[in-house]
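Predict structure. Chain length: 566.
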Amino acid sequence: MFACCVVFFLLTTWSSVDCNPSPVLGDVVVDRVFIPEICVREVKNGDNVRFHYNATFIDGKTFDSSHQRGASVGLIGEGRLIAGLEKGLQGMCVNERRTITVPPHLAYGSTGAGDVVPKDTTLVFEVHLLDLWNKADLVVTKTITTPKDCKRSVMRTDFVRYHFNGTLLDGTTFDSSYNRKQTQDALVGEGWLIKGMDEGLLGMCVGEIRNILIPPFKAYGEKGSGTEIPSQATLVYNILLVDIHNRKDDITVENQVVPESCTRKSVAGDYIRYHYNGTFLNGITFDTSYQRNSTYNTYIGMGYVIAGIDQALLGVCTGERRRVIIPPHLAYGEHGAGNVIPPSAVLVFDIHVIDFHNPNDTVDIQIIHKPEVCNETTAVNDLVHYHYNCTLVDGTRLFSSHDYERQQDAMLGSNKVIDGLDEGLQGMCVGEKRVVTVPPHLGHGEKGAPGVPSSAVLVFEIEMMSFEKGVPPGYMFVWLEESPADLFEALDMNKNEEVPQEEFGEFIKLQVAEGKGRIKPGLTMDEVISDMFQNQDRNKDGVITANELKLKVDEDKEREARHEEL
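Prediction complete.
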């Protein structure tokens, strides 16, 4: 049928052209059986075409068909097709169907074609145009949608991730990344892609949707690709750019909001608590700490987190907010992370720093107010009465003694409060006000407490209301002056050589009243007297004798001596 068949690919411009019927072309009769609604380009001389056909005689007998061996390819105007068919193809649109009747003198004439086509035979071709291109065609791109804010576009050597639907020019789908539920990932301009795709992706922004029309000679050419892309096929891609980065990229910090007061910035080795939203460049969230209602806590600069986060959290202030864009080689790389983060994904973290501390931190004490007259200050073993407000570093309120309409009481040094607060309460005057910042290792630690997050730095606003001087551990009463030379004689007020509890109690009350001694704070006088008397009445007969009476210091010495003997 053909003088010569040549395989080639097609591309077209994207301007609309009206398709006008041409019933007779120099004795060639054309019946336009189907005309597509949109015709962006018509066949003309110099174009390459790819088409299917059925060839019959006037009586309807078939003598040839491309459907059995694959579409035919031809170059228009070069004499490679029979003259009548070439005329009948002129002006066709892709997907148009025509019946072309070719008289003998524009077909095989008086000689015919071997045993297949007799001489002087009129031929009828039912043609379906599949593809159309010209060797002068370029890659044609058309932007469908583009994001409002495009800070970066694709350049050569960039690595891109994109979704696509790929069709032939007649609309036949040959591939789709959506069906695989996985993006196409590639370096641009490095030979990973067909040349037309390399060109078509240039200048795209993340979130942009673009149509790319690629002529065969910038696609898969004469060889095609597998069974899906035939020889000399024009390819049409609908592209959604998901991601872009370059192997030279470092992290990028944006939208930084730093508190006005920033007295300290994080360094390597600090332990930090922060909230975050993690998204891809297209805005899709892959993780967020807010949904868990719990900060992410970690050491920084020590490799406990991905390199980009390690870097991004250095030099931040408490309360700071920042957006960090992390290229994949500083995130999860080519392997991604499970089913959550795909390979080679750029990650975007919107971070809010809640607090940070260092394991070497000590309690920080700021004196807000101190009375001019301060004759005595709190110390270990004292019973203190104070008001407080407790917050996180960001000001989140946790507890307040004012909520209970009473003062808070604590015996210093007796593990009644967290270590950092105990330290902050020492050395205070009545009426003094302090702000005490307690690192977690001197607070509630990694486990936290009811109402207190794990590893939280706590801030206490303290006002000392009053305090009672204490006694050493194990003591119920201490002398403030020298004790009597003969203590039993002093106790035995009626000189009957025995001291009942009533007499013992009167003596202790007198010492306290005269300022010669004090009892353990937090207990009533009667509780102290009862405890002390029971301790001295060693035979439990209700009275203390001279042989039974011993000072605690003497008891301790005897106990130590017995220990040494053992």
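Summary: The CA atoms of residues 156 and 188 lie 5 Å apart.
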